[in-house]
Design brief:
The protein is built from no helices and five strands. The chain has about 110 residues and is mainly beta.
Length: about 110
């Protein structure tokens, strides 16, 4: 599992360019994976070794997920109060969610 969170602030009065009132951006990312498997085998001989059975069965499933959120705002209203809700522009918030999984697989081999 990987988690990452970041906040970048350019305080009031320190910004270069057109926006002198500063800006703020926040981002958070969460990534994870679940993987499990089971394996079983069977070996036996019958009729004094004339017939033998070797069997194997296995199962595996995997799921992964990713979740990311990002927001940005500029032009702080109150100097020194550096939060996304203290910006003149409506904050832009982006939310991404992705979940993937592999189908359930079962295999049997008899030798």
């Amino acid at each position: 599992m990987i988690n990452r969170r970041a906040e970048n602030v350019t305080p009031w009065g320190t910004a270069r360019g057109a926006v002198k009132e500063g800006n703020i951006s926040n981002s958070a990312e969460y990534h994870g994976e679940f993987n499990t498997e089971a394996i079983a085998g069977y070996t036996n001989s019958f009729k004094d070794g004339l017939v033998s059975v070797d069997a194997f069965i296995g199962w595996n499933t995997m799921a992964s997920w990713s979740d990311a959120t990002s927001s940005y705002g500029d032009q702080f209203v109150v100097p020194g109060f550096n939060t996304i809700n203290n910006t003149k522009q409506n904050p832009v918030v982006i939310l991404l969610l992705k979940v993937t999984s592999t189908p359930l697989r079962t295999s049997r081999n008899v030798l």
